[in-house]
Amino acid sequence: MKTFTVPTRDQVSEHNQAIFDNLHKAIGMVPNLYATMAYSENALGNYVTFQGGKTSLRGKEKEAVNLIVSQVNGCIYCLSAHTMLGKMHGLTDEQVIEIRKGSASFDTKLDALVKLAKNITETKGKADSALVDNFFAAGYNEGSLIDLIMLIGDKTIMNYLHNLTHVPVDFPLAPEL
After folding, report:
1. Model-level pTM greater than 0.85?
2. Of 9, 42, 54, 155, which shows the fewest CB atoms inside 10 Å?
3. CA-CA distances (angstroms) from residue 2 to 9, 64, 167?
4. Strand, helix or coil at 173?
5. Is the pLDDT assigned to residue 76 strictly greater than 90?
6. Contact by Cβ (8 Å): 143, 149
7. What does the alpha-carbon distance between residue 112 and residue 110 come to, in Å, rounded to a whole number?
8. Three-class SS of residue 40?
9. For residue 68, what pLDDT is reported?
């Protein structure tokens, strides 16, 4: 299989160089997986716009979904990045591990979200109706379900990108389960 290297700023188009500059200003780096998207003239810009869209899900909820989807899809890059980001949104090490195992007993609403996100990812959208009912009973609405599906799609893109390219992880490695 082809080996992917992470392109540098000088190796990408002017359009992507501007995105690199914006990422560097915003977060102090251009994560390797984002840089790899810059092989495409359009993918990085499209993805950054998609990922930055508004959602009804809070930061901690987004990170919980990112963690469980990345766990199901077996993406060490995203697990590592979202372990760090999850902690920045108030999750403890123990909570991150529990979420990666498929539950969040420390928060009933988050638990319903994690269980449904896991099931949707595993079943390719053919979710267990009891988990959907539990999601709504926990206080989420139809809009939240659509936002959850969008977030699962967002994270699946990055999971698949890393699982195919195997670019180096540039975050502290997430522990194995």
Report:
1. yes
2. 54
3. 21, 32, 11
4. coil
5. yes
6. no
7. 5
8. coil
9. 98
